[in-house]
Write a structure and sequence with these properties.
This protein has helices spanning 4-20, 29-33, 41-46, 90-103, 121-125, 148-158, 176-188, 230-237, 256-282; strands at residues 50-55, 61-67, 78-83, 112-116, 192-197, 202-206, 214-215, 218-220, 242-246. It has a nine-stranded mixed beta sheet. The protein starts with a helix and ends with a helix. The chain contains nine helices and nine strands. With 283 residues, the protein is of the alpha/beta class. The protein is globular and about 50 Å long. The chain has a single domain, classed as Zn peptidases (Aminopeptidase). Helix content is 37%, strand content 16%. The structure holds zinc ion. Zinc ion binds next to loops.
Amino acid sequence: MSVSGWSHQALAATSAISAQAAKPITDWCTPLVARLPKISGTDCRNSQVQPAGALSANGFPILVRDIAADPRRKQALKVLLLGGIHGDEQTASAIVFKWIEVMQKPATQEFQWKIAPIVNPDGLLAAKPMRVNARGVDLNRNFPTPNWQQDAPRYWANTTRSDPRRFPGKAPVSEPESRWVYDTIEQFKPDVIISVHAPFGVLDFDGPVTPPRRFGRLIYNRVGVYPGSLGNYSGLHKDIPVVTIELPNATVLPPDAEVQRIWQDMLGWIRRNVSAQAKLAQR
Ligand SMILES: [Zn+2]
């Protein structure tokens, strides 16, 4: 859990760039793709992810791609797509880059997207990729669910037996990465959130609409509700549906055809359920 990593290299990159004047920093991709299965530097750069303005605990930018909906679509649904809240689930970030590539093909977009493939860059870039962030916090237990102060530490101590991989932090949204997700939900106001994980090979869902039955080979099966998890916070307390996609392997991506099937099934589910619910709510 060294903090020597990013602050130094990021500073080095910054000074090298400032020496050339006015050239934007674009090489965040090189260190990342070394950790991402089947994603090349070109794939990463073509995704056009840009620093969102927030930095990880070690000073690495949280990278985002915004994709607007076709302007002729009135009230297009807003989708927040998150990968890699857990840094040792490399496929969860890699598949999001694969999907960005698919999205760039059609000329127009049905939905408005905000996409962060790597919510926990320090975990991914650690000497050995790790679930927690650089400060040892499980970001997916750090969201401000009701009674967090009581429930999250108790759950951690009693149910996980103080597993260091599941430490919820000392206070809700104490971490820059979870704070960025929290702020993004407040500002972007997504209609649905898709959060990608591995390796349980299922779909989980929290929220007010009909859960998905299957995306590709992944079948709906509740994993559980935890104090401080994004699904619990957003799906159950903010009434914003959260689909948690658990890929079957943390380091080996599914075959390309399955990557596509999961994507298409997900779009179909959003189209049928999230939009239908939104229309109902407007009546
Ligand atoms: Zn995970």
